[in-house]
Fold this protein.
Amino acid sequence: MKDLIEEKRYFLKDYIKLETDFSQTDQNRGIAPPPIEKPFLKGSKRINLPKPHQWKDIGDCSLIYAIANRKSCRKYSQKPLEIEELAYLLWATQGVRKQLKSAVLRTVPSAGNRHSFETYLCILNVNGLDGGIYRYLPLEHELLFEFSEQNLREKISIAAMGQFFAGTAAVVFVWTAIPYRTEWRYSIAAHKVIAIDAGHVCQNLYLACEAIGAGTCAIAAYNQELMDRLIRVDGNEEFVIYLAPVGKVHLLL
């Protein structure tokens, strides 16, 4: 039995070596890390978001309540989201808690603190915001207006493979992955942890929705080419990895 254990131990050790040689990662080769936020042009249209101390109308609920009542929601009322509520959801899913000299601490965990995601928003019914595609800037806690898109409700529903409830939401969160942010540290081992990290982000969205009387439903079944084209990312260096419509839920009387 002892010999068998030793044999397995050496097999796993060799397997891990073959899988990922961390000594050859770009980090260990002395290459500078990629930026933690996509750059944007000076003069771009940006919208300041209310910060946590300015959230006056955000509902409150206990963590126990949020976990116990969290569920996927596919039916939304026509009531719009308020911009304060959207700011809260963005902060809960990708917000910055603290900026250090060599790192940025966010509200969600990420392997090696690499945070490979960008958050795009298909704005459909948010008070104070024109419809269109926006991107969240976590370092600035701002929205960057990307572009307008005709028939956005229909296009997001079609790209979601006919899951038409997506087009009835107030906003659709669309997360893209920029793999190199994590590959820089973990090489091909990054691909597993990026998928795990996406789950952390979306679970925070589910729980945060409970505090504002909203609902969401994670969507992983979508047409990759159509979604990448809709958000206008290249599909290689950056691609859609997950989406989640959000809207106010119908209250039972």
The two ends are 65 Å apart (CA to CA). The mean pLDDT is 90. Strands lie at 46-48, 96-99, 104-106, 117-123, 132-137, 142-147, 171-177, 214-216, 239-248.
